């Protein structure tokens, strides 16, 4: 998600990033770019959309907010990394609790820290494309730009860990559009949202984070945490407390729904 005050510097859209994206797309044989954005100029209501429209193959275009499975299943997702300080600490806590999570990786950071992407994949976590450089205004931009951000981010992650699937796409700040959802689904990635947001990115304090994730959990929740975008010490502490609490309440850890509903 990444709504921290540090997100602004990750919104660079200058020539260097654009050139890198286009080069990656060319190398990956990416599809041709659309010329214009067919969506309205305002922020899309898709930010809260939940309709599931099937795209290419079995990957729906609808935004996934449920964990796989039934009953007391939960999906932990971690955004905005990889980060050399906080990602290893999050990975340590996940290992200690025998939890597999889904890491939503920013492309430029995956390119900068490929060894962390490999460590995430080696631990059995799922990979999610979180765009090239975390531009939270993507839903105001042309479809060509959205495509560059989505496929460029995916290519950067894949370059860090060849042969490992990137199964999800999460728009920065939830800034989805119908077009971006279709691009993701057509390229094998389920659009990924969340159902529980403790706003750990704002560093509200450990009690506030823990209260938000323990209180009145919806069915099969997808919970949003962060390992990038700033000081994530509160997130690490919250995970140390939260993951054992979930096990004590008979939750089973899984990944977000990918092909249904």
TrEMBL record:
CDD domains: CE4_NodB_like_6s_7s. Keywords: Signal. Residues 1-34 form the signal peptide. InterPro entries: Glyco_hydro/deAcase_b/a-brl, NODB_dom, Polysacc_deacetylase_ArnD. Gene3D superfamilies: Glycoside hydrolase/deacetylase. Residues 72-254 form the NodB homology domain. PROSITE patterns: NODB. Residues 33-64 are annotated as: Disordered. This is Polysaccharide deacetylase family protein. It comes from Streptomyces polychromogenes. The lineage of its organism: Bacteria, Bacillati, Actinomycetota, Actinomycetes, Kitasatosporales.
